[in-house]
Amino acid sequence: MADTVIITPTKNRSDPGSDTNLLEKTIYSVRSQTFKDYAHLIVDDDSNDMTEDLVHFYMEKDPRILYLHRDKSNDEKPNASCARNLGLAYVFGSNDGQLTAGQERELEQAEFITFLDDDDLLPEHSLAMRRAVMKKNPDLGMVYGNEMLFRDNGNGPEAYRRLRIANPKPRHLRKKILFKPSFPHLSTMWRREVAENIGYFDPDIGFGEDKDYVLRGIAEIMRAGCGVAHIDEFVLFYRMHDGERLSTFYLGNGQNFEEMKEVEKKNMSSLDYRMFVLKRVLSKPHSFLPEAVKVVLRPVRDFAASLFLQTFVKDDLQYSDDFLYKIEDTDSDFLRPIDEQ
């Protein structure tokens, strides 16, 4: 019986033999977990490539993999929220009949929920570490860990940055998430009861919907008197790549600032938001430049930032580096001739 559900929204990440065939590597990383009692719920957000074929290929090999499809409407904001919400609906007991009754019951009985995007990877001990902390500490509402950002330019994966925010007191953590540009949102694992009270991702937020979800989650944890724990280990490999990404869409057209402003407004009191804006004006006046000026300056900023990227290696986590190389070097089973499978 699966006590942990992984929800993966996906769209057009299954083009065999191309650089966009990333979902298969994500599936590899989940199937390689040392903790085995999970359900991997993959929600196809109306792909027009071979996503459905790929997932069904692995479903025949592994009954823990489940497939849902949703029809994406033209008036939806570009984000993964609706796909994640369909997965959550099945976990919460509200479904549209795409799974068997047994599969639905298994999802409804899960204790823990986590999210994994279709281009990211889980280190092999990721589920085991997070779940163990949650099982040992029943007063915890959420656990999170560190995130390694990596890029594979054809010469093997290169880890160049990590995200680590280590202050698990809910009130302090909430402030850090509000005021810091980055937090490993998808490194979180939630207790089911807390997730039910949080509800769903906000489909009206295009950029920063994961930040909004975590902020609402921590507010719920504070209301319920639960705790939060931080694991000082890598629990997520975040892939940087040149393919189509929602964050690139919003960054490219300059909408990210407006979207994030709405997230901040939504999760702050009116006074706190005014103080926050004042602090930003004083510390980052360039944030308020006209978009036409930002477009000119953005390439300069990106070039300068690239000069400071450094490879991050942690000796006591060498297994993670080995595992990352293993996943990236794995050939596609989906493309292998039938007589070799």
Describe this structure in words.
The structure is a single chain. The protein is an alpha/beta fold and 341 residues long. It has one domain: Spore Coat Polysaccharide Biosynthesis Protein SpsA, Chain A (Alpha-Beta Complex). It has helices spanning 23-31, 51-61, 81-91, 101-108, 126-136, 170-179, 192-198, 209-224, 246-252, 256-266, 270-283, 291-306, 318-329; strands at residues 4-10, 38-44, 65-69, 112-115, 140-152, 157-163, 189-191, 227-240. Strands 1, 2, 3, 4, 5, 6, 7 and 8 form an 8-stranded mixed β-sheet that branches. β5 (140-152) and β6 (157-163) form a beta hairpin. The protein starts with a strand and ends in a 12-residue tail after the last helix.
Write the layout of secondary structure elements.
Blueprint: E1 4-10, H1 23-31, E2 38-44, H2 51-61, E3 65-69, H3 81-91, H4 101-108, E4 112-115, H5 126-136, E5 140-152, E6 157-163, H6 170-179, E7 189-191, H7 192-198, H8 209-224, E8 227-240, H9 246-252, H10 256-266, H11 270-283, H12 291-306, H13 318-329
Parallel strand pairs: 1-2, 1-4, 2-3, 5-8
Antiparallel strand pairs: 4-7, 5-6, 5-7
Helix pairs in contact: 6-8, 7-8
**Fraction in helix:** 40-55%
Provide the low-confidence segments as ranges: 308-320
Structural class: alpha/beta
Radius of gyration: 20 Å
N-to-C order of helices and strands: EHEHEHHEHEEHEHHEHHHHH
Corresponding CATH architecture: Alpha-Beta Complex
Mean pLDDT: 82
Spatial shape: globular
Q: How many helices does DSSP assign?
A: 13
The level-1 CATH class: Alpha Beta
CATH superfamily, called what?
Answer: Spore Coat Polysaccharide Biosynthesis Protein SpsA, Chain A
**How far from one another are the termini?**
28 Å
CATH topology: Spore Coat Polysaccharide Biosynthesis Protein SpsA, Chain A
Strand content: 15-25%
Total strand segments: 8
Number of structurally distinct domains: 1
Largest sheet: 8 strands, mixed
